[in-house]
Amino acid sequence: MKEVTKYIIKNSLKRIFLYRACLSRLKQMGVDKVFSYTLANEAGVTPAQVRKDFSEFGIKGNKKGGYEIDELLSKMEEIFHRSKDHNIVLIGMGNLGQSLSRYSKFVQRNMNIVATFDVDPFKLKMRSEIPVYSMTRLKEIIDRFRVKVAIIAVPEISAQEVADELIRHGIKGIVNFAPVLLKVPSEVVVNNVNLCDELESVIYYVQKILKSEGLKNIELLYKDMKY
Known about the structure:
By secondary structure, the chain is α/β, with parallel strands linked by helices.
């Protein structure tokens, strides 16, 4: 087993999500066509970056004539395989797992959590629209619904063991909410989502802003004192 998957989630792919959100908003405003500089302004990147990202994913358009928004959105649907349903299993029905299991946006994007799993006998008796199963039924459910993607929302200590079991049963992609880097074969995709890291990233930049504002205030005070 290798420690790092060869399928790293590229920043360009993340920007496609951003472009899609901007395009959807522009369409709601009644806009039919968009130029790279307009989309760049909406997304906070350069026009050259937009064109480069589009080229990477085979999105074509007329540089002078602009892009048809409906065509762009249709192409992005193809990129993310929105034309078919994707069955998913969720492991761990703690507070985070329960929240994820009820997230309505998954269904809107053709992502169906067909089953959830937990080792706690009490959780197996929970009333839920999505059934909660014992881990002993994991292979059965994965095979029945032809699941290839799983969400891990278990404590750090259990995450690697759960990932190993999922991979043994044919899972090829994992979204991992446990605060640990999983060791997986190179052909398995893992996207680690650490909520604490995300918050600390925001806190880091907030502190930089506050520090910058504090320095500006000191400079203004110093100027006032001089005059």
